Amino acid sequence: MFKTKMIYIITIADAVLYLFSVVMFLFTKTELALTIWEMLTIVSGPILLFAMLHLSHDLNQSVIIRYAVLGFMTCVCLLTAVAHVVNICVTRRLIAVGVDVPKYFRIGQWPSVEMAVDYLAWGFFMGLAYLCLGLSIVKNERKKNRIRIASIICGCMCLVGFFGALFINENLWYIAPMAYGPGIIVICILAILVGTDSRLFTIVIFYLFNDIMKGVKMLGIYFSGTGNSRYAAELFCREYDKKTRVLSIEDSDVLTAVNDANLIVFAYPVQFSTVPKIMRDFVTDNKGMWRNKKVFVIATMGLFSGDGAGMLGRLLENYGAEVTGGLHLKMPDSIADEKALKRPLEKNKELVKQAEQKIKKSVGQLKEGHPTKEGIGPLYRLAGFWGQRAYFGHKTREYTSKLKINNERCVGCRKCENLCPMNNITIVENKAVSGNRCTMCYRCINKCPKEAITLLGKNVVEQCEIEKYL
User: Fold this and answer.
1) Counting beta carbons within 10 angstroms of the beta carbon of residue 101, is it exposed (0 to 12), middle (13 to 18) or buried (19 or more)?
2) Are 320 and 291 in contact (CB under 8 A)?
3) In whole angstroms, what is the distance from residue 316 CA to residue 268 CA?
4) Under a CB-based contact definition with an 8 Å cutoff, are residues 305 and 270 in contact?
5) Do the Cβ atoms of 359 and 236 come closer than 8 Å?
6) Model confidence pLDDT, tens digit, residues 222-237
7) Which of 159, 389, 392, 449 could be a cystine partner for 127, CB 3.0 to 4.6 Å?
8) What is the pLDDT of residues 348-359, one digit of tens each?
9) Cβ atoms 232, 329 nearer than 8 A
10) Exposure b/e, 310-332, CB count within 10 A at least 16 = b
11) Burial of 140 (C-beta count, 10 Å sphere; 0-12/13-18/19+)
12) So what's the pLDDT on residue 326?
């Protein structure tokens, strides 16, 4: 696997060899030297294409700019291949057998068709690619701005060489090689010194070409009792792309939306460092839907999770999904009938603000191609198992029948019946009656106007909803 810095080093080495081949040809004027120079010119095109893609990625250019760079550099590669392959395989062979080839078909002669194609590639299109890299100067990014400024200078040099050779003087062309020779060496050195991260080369190529071929179609899917996970999913997805749909697993059209998406963001509240059974069942019942899907997992929690995101991630991987990252968010506690995790109102508001900042940072990292990996990996798994699941994991293996309803307080308003995602509550003789399929989401407990429902505790201490802390 190539690393990002490695492609810059390869580009520098290629540029040095290219300059050496030019000098060797100018001094020797031999056929061998000319062949070496032309072959290096052909090879340099794809190398510079990859370097430019990395630069546009590391400079945080928009997707449109990256596509433009890709398009311009592709033109450089194709035109270069045409000009020099024709010269090597046709023109020079004809000359070698004594055919008097007109000079306007010879490379190195101006004006000529092959030189015009070469100028178009390395002057015009290379110049445009350079200018794209330098389009946006960003405050507080002094080191990266040096790369952008150097790119603008190189782009102007290429264009001056191209238009100068066409309309003023042929010798002005020699300005352009200074841009894609010494110029690219300077830019790559600056990129390395900036400390650009060493993401895998294939990650950059995946994100760029995946966007080109089919576009990133993100979908948010959540299960939420009091709104924490819903809020996290909505903020994450809309921070990534405002047009992203965010659906509950209870929505009737969620599976249709899954079919159309290639990047799915799951969000749910962890229960004893594991996944709520309703979410596990949703994934398992629709196991054929996740093959070849990219997945990012958000786990919300009141205190501790360990590998909350990893639990669902491993399940999805079993069904063919690729888990790209995970995020753990500490949110206001939703267990309304226990006092242990209750916090003051201002503290809960602060938790939500911290979660918002963490989400925005995580989205930025996802866009840059190195998503957060919280909850994913062996250390997180050990923490989750020994922290909670070893002692309490059995509580979430099945639905529970331990939901308690105080008949003296219940007025039969049907609010809990309508809210229950499991249809576990019914009204009998104007009183709520619980069945044995409670998924412990605490939705009914936090919404009951008479505080008549409990699960783990005996009395409701504080009812919680995300809107209370926004």
Assistant:
1) middle
2) yes
3) 14
4) yes
5) yes
6) 999 999 999 999 999 9
7) 159
8) 999 999 999 999
9) yes
10) bbbbebbeeeebebbbbbbbbbb
11) exposed
12) 95
Tokens of 312: 């669902």
The residue whose two tokens read 């690393």 is 3
- Residue 434 three-state SS: strand
How far, in Å, CA of 357 to CA of 348, rounded? 14
* Cα dist from 298 to 49, 238, 413, whole Å: 36, 14, 34
Give the per-residue pLDDT at 37: 83
R_g of the chain, CA atoms, integer Å? 31
Terminal alpha carbon distance of the chain: 45
Three-state DSSP state, 362: helix
Which structure tokens are listed for 254? 């969620």
- At 198, the pLDDT band (50, 70, 90 cuts) reads very low
Distance (Å, rounded) from C-alpha 173 to C-alpha 154?
13
Let me know: does 396 contact 274? Beta carbons within 8 Å. Answer: yes
Question: Phi-psi bin for 74: left (phi > 0), alpha (psi -120 to 50), beta?
Answer: alpha
What does DSSP assign to residue 170? Answer: G
Helix (H) or strand (E) holding 300: strand 294-301
Q: Is 129 helix (H, G, I), strand (E, B) or coil?
A: helix
Q: What pLDDT, in 10s, does the model give residues 339-383?
A: 877 889 999 999 999 999 999 999 999 988 889 999 988 888 888
Q: Three-state DSSP class for 470?
A: coil
Element (H, E) at 247: strand 245-248
Token pair for 225: 């009792």
What whole-number distance in Å separates Cα of residue 37 and Cα of residue 18?
7
Closest to 313 measured CA to CA, from 373, 256, 253, 354: 373
CA angle 14-53-184, nearest 5°?
A: 40
Query: Look-up: residue for tokens 């899954």?
Result: 258
pLDDT greater than 80 at residue 143:
no
